[in-house]
Amino acid sequence: MSWLVTGGAGYIGSHVVRSLSEAGMDPVIVDSMSSGVRRFVPEELPFYSASVVDIDKLAEIMDRHEITGVIHLAGYKYAGESVKNPLLAFEQNVTGTAHLLQAMEQSGVQNMVFSSSAAVYGTPAAAIVTEDTGTFPESPYGQSKLIGEWLIRDQAVARGLKHTSLRYFNVVGSGSEDLYDSSPHNLFPLVFAALNGSRTPKIFGTDYDTPDGTCVRDYVHVADLALAHVAAARKLEAGQELEPVYNLGSGDGVSVRQIMDAVARVTGIPFTPIEEPRRAGDPARIVADGKLAARDLDWAMRHSLEQMVASAWKASGSRA
C-alpha cells in the first residue's frame, strides 16, 4: 500500500517524499513539472509526469499502485502573482483539487492530507491565529486554498473521506543539500540569487504596521513540515480521527528585515537591503499557534532561524 504525493518533485513535496520513504510508506509521485525538479525524486521511486486536472490518469495511477491515501501538495503557490493571474490560481488549486477528489472517489481512495496555507486568514486582527480564527483571504491564492479545504470537507460529508488540512506560510531551509527552493518568487531564493549575482537583495514594503515596518511571518523549516505531513498520513492510515485543520506555526513571527540580518550573519556578506514598495496580496502579519498540531502530529520547530538560513544557503549551491 502506497501514498500518492502530488507535487512530489517540488521543494516541499520532495522533502515529504523522502520522509515518507524513511517511514516505509512507499511514496508514488505525480508532478506536472511546471516548477518541479526531476532530480529531486529518487530514481527508484515511481514517478509520473501528470497534472492533477487529469482525472483518468490520476485514477489509473492510484489503481496501479493500490494507493492508500494522497498528500496533495501540487498547486499554484504564489500569493502576489495570483493577483495578476487569478484564473491560473483557481484552475490549478480549485479545479485541480476537485479533479483529484474525483479520481480518488473513482479509485476508492479514502485518505487525504491537504497542503493549505496561512494565507486563508488574510490579515487577522489577533496577534496569533488559531484554527478558530476567521478566514478572510486577501489574494486569489488564499481564496483558492480555502475553497480547496471546503471541497475536501464537503467530499468527507458526501463520501466519508478521511482528511486533514495543514496551514502554513513561509517554508524555508533544506533537509538535504541536494534539495533547494527553486521558486522565483520566494524570499530566500531571491535573496541568495541577488547575493550570488553581486546584487543587493530587496525588501518589498517597509511601511507595514509592524515593529520594523516589514512583513512578519512564521518561517518554518521544510524538514519539520515534512515530518508533520507524514505524521498526519500515518494517523489517517491507522484510522485515527484528526482535526479538519491544523496550523503549523511557531507562535512567534520573524520580520523580513530580521531575515535579511540573519542572511548577512550566516553568509558573511554584509549588505543593506534596497527598499521597494509593497507587493499586492501581502498581509502585514501572520503568526500561527501550532499547539493543536503539537498535540496530534508531533509538530515542533526543531530548527533555529540561523539553522534555517544556513541549510538553505548551503543547498542553494547545488543549483549550479
Automatic annotation (TrEMBL):
Domain called NAD-dependent epimerase/dehydratase: residue spans: 3-249
Identify the pathway: Carbohydrate metabolism; galactose metabolism
Protein name (record): UDP-glucose 4-epimerase
What EC number(s) has UniProt assigned to this enzyme? Answer: 5.1.3.2
Q: List the keywords (alphabetical).
A: Carbohydrate metabolism, Isomerase, NAD
Q: State the family named in the UniProt similarity comment for this chain.
A: Belongs to the NAD(P)-dependent epimerase/dehydratase family.
Catalytic reaction equation(s): UDP-alpha-D-glucose = UDP-alpha-D-galactose
UniProt source species? Glutamicibacter halophytocola
Which Gene3D superfamilies does this one have? NAD(P)-binding Rossmann-like Domain, UDP-galactose 4-epimerase, domain 1
The cofactors named for this UniProt entry are: NAD(+)
Q: Does the keyword Isomerase apply?
A: yes
Which molecular function GO terms apply here?
Answer: UDP-glucose 4-epimerase activity
